[in-house]
Amino acid sequence: MSERIERLAKLMERFLSPLSQKLGFSIDTIESVEVDPEGPRIVVQAGGGEDYERLYVDISPDGVELTVTIPAPKGLDPDEVDAILGLRIEEGEEFEGIEEYDVAYDPEEGELTVTLHARTVNGLPNVQTIRRVAGEVLEELRSNQESG
Prior knowledge:
Number of strands: 6
Strand content: 25-35%
Oligomer: single chain
Helix content: 25-40%
Shape: elongated
Radius of gyration: 17 Å
Distance between the termini: 65 Å
């Protein structure tokens, strides 16, 4: 039995390692992997990474969806965060492969959740890019709020 579990663990690591490398999260932060053969789809959930609080990757024949939640300053205007970050996603070359996106900012909790959908994993930016671009937007808005 333990040989079988060990073999399955090695197979799962061979699948998850390239995914985690491409998207820039540590395989050590993976909390769960769900496989739905009827979907068919695979959902990977990770938490507590250096560049994110929570991360979900949903892989299906429809494409790949990456959802990343990062800490953000409290008290910003959610509409401004959505508009400015949305514009950066629409116009930024690092987001070229993105077909759809969603931005959700919680000003009371100080959390920003970015969801990106692409045809393939290669169409998605890595977590560090999302964190950098979101951080630039949040810092700009925070500075404007303090000075205005």
